[in-house]
Amino acid sequence: METKPSRCVALVAVGTYLSLLCGGCLSNEYVISKSELARLAYLPPSQRGAHVHVVQELGSRDEWPVDNRDAVPAQAYADEFVLYDQPADLAAAENLDVLSLLDTGPTGTAHGRPRSRPSSWPRGLPGARGGNPNFVNGWDIIEASSPKGGGSLDDLAVVAIVAVAVAVLAAAGLAVTEGIRYDGFVQLHPEQPVYLKERGGARPVPLAALGPEDVVASQEAVVRDDEDWGLRFAHRRPLDRRGFAFKVDLGSLESLCACYSAVGFASNIQFGYFPHHRVGLLASLTLGGGTSALEHTFQRHSASFETQVFPLNWWRLDLGGFGHGGMQVANDEFGERDGPAFGGGVLLELALTTRLALTGRWDYTTARTSPEIHGWAGTSTFTAGLAIY
Fold this sequence. Notes:
389 residues; alpha+beta
């Protein structure tokens, strides 16, 4: 028994370290997919930067992003950058240094293309070199980051507490990285360099010079928010559940049966996959316990597979339901019992970003874990937490 405290400390320390590894830093690089590159390559050069879908990478950054303020109307690109659709006129205007669009902005040569002065962003909203430490991804906040780089009843309780602590820390780390990284639309200057990822490495090409042959030879492209004109952030994509999902919530538990009732704490830890935005399958671990009215400790832990469906949507709110089946373990003054468990309930999600949502859920589970022989007991939980997609 003397070694238990040290074991608990070791489990918490290791769990905390592993959970923090789930986080990361938000990078200065944003990925443009191959399909998006193909779409851009067939647009007139003047309009390519008006609406570009990007996904921010996880990594590191050396400089603060260029603060270009809000996005401008798409028509501004057709009006202000029309010369990029006429290469001969553009070259002549640059040679004579008389472009009507010339204004303050980055200086120098853009990747081997000589020019005396580059043109600015659409008139009235010029881009500025240098960064604003309070401007990240279109949000007026400082970028959040995570660091880089007595018997079986007591043992089961320790494992449950550590599992919940690790899951909560992991969810927090993922929320400030995967949850808030930018996945949406930006505006780019026609001469903003995009780095085409090819077999030989990354090759920079001005957006206006992008051709179909460049798309064929590349896998994807990267653009940087702290380089040259930077990015204008337009809007994020709405919540998209497709792909892997990780959910953690906390709340209250009530255990009821013909001869026993108790109220305590509950947590759901879930990991799974959504093949469709509104339908997903998750492995679920429900951990709960507390003290009964007779001052006896009790535990209710379940492992199950769960199907979630979100058929209703209004604004940022999604209303859905779920059903699950698995096994439950009950442990209290009557001893340890286990048996099959089935249940379901109601889900509510409030979208915060493309990959992050607040969740609320009510669940009722019935399991053959009653103190009575072959009896069934009900467990009701109300919980709230985070969903990271």
